[in-house]
Amino acid sequence: MLARDMGQTAYLVGGMVRDLAIGCRNIDLDIVIEGDALDLAGVFARATGSSVKGRTKFGTCKIESRAFGTIDLATARSESYRHPGALPDVEASNLKADLARRDFTVNAMAISLDPHRYGRLLDPFGGFADISGGRLRILHPAGFRDDPTRILRGVRFAARFGFTFESGTLARLRACLREGCVGSVSGKRIYTELNLICMEDKARRALGLLGKYRIPESIDPVLGRKTVRSRHMRRLAPAIARVDLSAGEVFAEKRLCWLAGLFFGLKRRQAAHLADRLDLPGREREACLWVSAEVPRTLVKLSRLDAGSAYRVVKLLRPVAPEGIVHLFAASGRRERNLIAAYLKAWRDVSPSLNGRRVVALGIEKGPLVGRVLERLLELRLQGKLTSPEDEIAYVRRRVRLRR
Ligand code: CTP
């Protein structure tokens, strides 16, 4: 209504329209304005007591309102690309041109919010028919070349909705890969897309599709098809489920588990090279490099232990991040898996009933010795040699007597 009063027209666009047509939940409100989105946002914010954030020179901003949450608002615009992988040149335009600059037909539909045509679907490229047919169709012959990250987006949507690439689209996708388009995309943008893939419920399916279309090797030669379609990747989903189930408060971030899966089996130098290529942020870099270098080494150490060496298993696994535990679980044989399961279920949560303060109160002098005594209490607890708080007190008193 407000838009209309200002001589502008508002449309709901993007993922929410697609997901309404498919019948899935989506809470991202993306609105395109034929007119001036920044102007309209200012008036809307004043009228509703909301605030406008992140204004850009492309005519986009975010409205943060109590009633609707965050709304993305954009002036209808058209885009052109100077060369593959470049960011687009942008010009204000109308809805049709705005839809035409998008990636797939299923993402190029709009719903009118104009009071006279409220709720009407605008579908100039046949997105609805493609949804019905379960097809992903690129809007332009040069769509992938203009922005090769759309290849990764396509795979993500294909996995999420169980869609397949329409034959012409697949041919263009393959041509773009043959020409090495993905190689010109920055690590940061590729990482962003890979991360989104790893966050999907159907991450495994999406990674499998990456392998099917030989996309990993076009990101970087150290990533072969086998990296995403390996036995380790197949075992990762059950491992994620198992560690989540049995780990109580330990929370493994699934997307990080999948991301690090790309590094499993790489040599140290290859892994460092890939982390650089993807421009991984600190935490991700650390987790991925750990998986490539430490999973095999930790498994060798684990293979030398048995159920009688609970304390040594705890010492080995305690410093490992939950995502690392998931990978160890996926990569290990039955014997090691049983040890990891016992660690998660029982041993990990064992701790002495005495704390540092009480150990000092019993006569151990403050300093590094306190830590050593607590560690020894843990060891004896895990060995079943101390079974009650009284046993622990008696042990500490004995040590104090021996030191005198
Ligand atoms: N888009 C595009 N090319 C890209 C990224 C986005 O053409 N590389 C277009 C798509 O048509 C998309 C719109 O910009 O519909 C908004 O992008 P985004 O919010 O990332 O995508 P959604 O379709 O909302 O996907 P999701 O459900 O994953 O949020």
How would you describe this protein?
The protein contains 22 helices and eleven strands. It has 404 residues and is an alpha+beta fold. The protein folds into three domains: 2-130, 2-Layer Sandwich (Beta Polymerase, domain 2); 225-347, cca-adding enzyme, domain 2; 356-403, no CATH class. The protein has a seven-stranded mixed sheet. A two-stranded antiparallel ribbon has the order 6-7. The chain has a two-stranded parallel ribbon with strand order 10-11. The radius of gyration is 28 Å and the shape is elongated. The protein binds cytidine-5'-triphosphate (CTP). Residues 14-15, 28, 102-103, 107, 147, 149-150, 153 line the site of cytidine-5'-triphosphate.
Instruction: Tell me the strand order in the biggest sheet.
Output: 3-4-5-2-1-8-9
Instruction: Report strand %.
Output: 5-15%
CATH class category of the largest domain: Alpha Beta
Are there runs of 5+ residues with pLDDT below 50, and where?
A: none
Assign the structural class, choosing from mainly alpha, mainly beta, alpha/beta, alpha+beta, or little secondary structure. alpha+beta
CATH fold name of the largest domain:
Beta Polymerase, domain 2
Helix count from the secondary structure assignment: 22
Which molecules are bound in this entry?
A: cytidine-5'-triphosphate
Cα gyration radius (Å): 28 Å
CATH architecture verdict of the largest domain: 2-Layer Sandwich
